[in-house]
Specification:
This protein is an all-alpha fold. It is 73% helix and 2% strand. The chain is built from 16 helices and two strands. The protein has helices at 16-40, 49-58, 62-72, 74-111, 127-130, 139-156, 162-181, 188-209, 215-218, 221-244, 250-254, 256-280, 284-291, 293-314, 320-344, 358-362; strands at residues 2-5, 8-11. The chain has a two-stranded antiparallel sheet with strand order 1-2.
Length: 363
């Protein structure tokens, strides 16, 4: 059964707060990618420091939030699919779209080299497996796949408890800071080191956060207001410390323990906000964005870049806030519509090697 939203549906058997949390995270991801794309295109961004400040603040928790949300469901997924089945599932829904869409984006950037910001060549295809961060935004899918598979192997083969995973993740996290500060490029290995701990934290809190008996607490205004001063203080420190060192990565790389606390506080605040949205059943389009977050992620840069080029080069629009808002709206809605049309046209293989329930995906 599904609940009708404007032209779309979200299945009722899904936890709404998860979709809201993913919706928040994907919007923040889009904001950063679109803002930086506009800034690199030559549009004057100097007059809009507040937009850059927002870009820095959002960076403190959005990716850890994705990994925590994924870790929340690892035990349930293993109980349902078992080890081999779950790894194959992750190949189908994470690794495959990563390989397909990253190769597609590189190809388009090469063909449209005179119009896009990226300077691509044939050598960039070699970065897909070894150095994913060199091909823009797609690194996240590869990182989530690698972290998930390693976590599954450690859990099932070596019988690591969640506390063993946390210890391992903590050591890996500190190692990621060490190599980052010394500018040692480990390619895809860095992302495994850096985000494994957040995936483990997801499993740690899973029993509490998935228990409906606790939903009243998590959706309470008292909890949210209690978290608010810590959230604000963390974000302000993150902003001004990074501005003071002229780097969005200073706190993350040079103060990893403090960054971890700021990230967890931000994640906790956003999860609490998501529970409140679930409680009042509002902002349903945000839930739709979260439900389709993977499909938005793989194609939003292509959509936003096309919209930006039309607005700047054809329409002559160079006002950054207007560009940001319009590109953001298109980057959210168009990928969702593309996915819906692909499902109806039998092009499900653009997003996964697993054939979906087409009726559920398109109703």
């Amino acid at each position: 059964m599904s609940r009708q939203l404007p032209g779309l549906t979200v299945q009722n058997n899904r936890l709404a707060w998860i979709d809201y949390a993913r919706g928040i995270a994907i919007i923040l991801v889009l904001y950063r990618h679109i803002f930086e794309g506009i800034s690199r295109s030559g549009v004057d961004a100097a007059k809009f420091q507040w937009l850059e400040n927002a870009n820095i603040i959002f960076y403190s928790f959005r990716m850890p939030l994705f990994f925590i949300l994924s870790g929340v469901f690892i035990a349930k997924s293993l109980a349902k699919r078992k080890m081999k089945g779950l790894i194959l599932n992750k190949v189908n829904i994470l690794l495959y779209p990563y390989l397909l869409w990253s190769a597609l984006q590189i190809t388009i950037q090469i063909l449209l080299s005179g119009y896009v910001n990226a300077d691509r060549g044939l050598a960039d295809y070699a970065y897909i497996l070894a150095f994913p961060r060199r091909i823009d935004q797609f690194w996240y899918l590869y990182a989530l796949f690698n972290v998930t598979v390693l976590y599954i192997i450690m859990r099932e083969k070596l019988r690591f408890s969640v506390w063993h995973q946390l210890i391992l993740g903590g050591a890996m996290y500190m190692a990621s800071s060490y190599v980052a500060v010394r500018h040692i490029d480990l390619g895809f290995i860095y992302d495994i080191l850096h985000y494994y701990i957040f995936f483990a934290i997801g499993e740690l809190v899973a029993d509490k956060i998935l228990d409906s008996k606790n939903f009243k607490l998590f959706s309470s205004w008292g909890l949210m207001l209690g978290l608010l001063p810590f959230f604000v203080a963390g974000q302000l420190y993150f902003l001004f410390a990074n501005l003071g060192h002229n780097s969005t990565l200073y706190v993350e790389e040079h103060q990893p323990l403090l960054f971890g606390l700021i990230a967890l506080c931000g994640c906790g605040f956003m999860i609490c906000l998501s529970f409140i949205l679930q409680r009042y059943d509002c902002l349903k389009l945000l839930r739709v964005a979260g439900y389709h977050s993977l499909y938005i992620y793989v194609s939003h840069v292509l959509v936003a870049s096309a919209v930006r080029m039309v607005m700047v080069k054809v329409l002559g629009v160079t006002y950054l806030p207007a560009l940001l808002i319009v590109c953001l709206l298109f980057a959210v809605t168009v990928p969702v519509l593309m996915y819906q049309l692909a499902m109806r046209a039998g092009l499900w293989w653009l997003y996964s090697l697993e054939r979906p329930d087409v009726k559920a995906a398109t109703n």
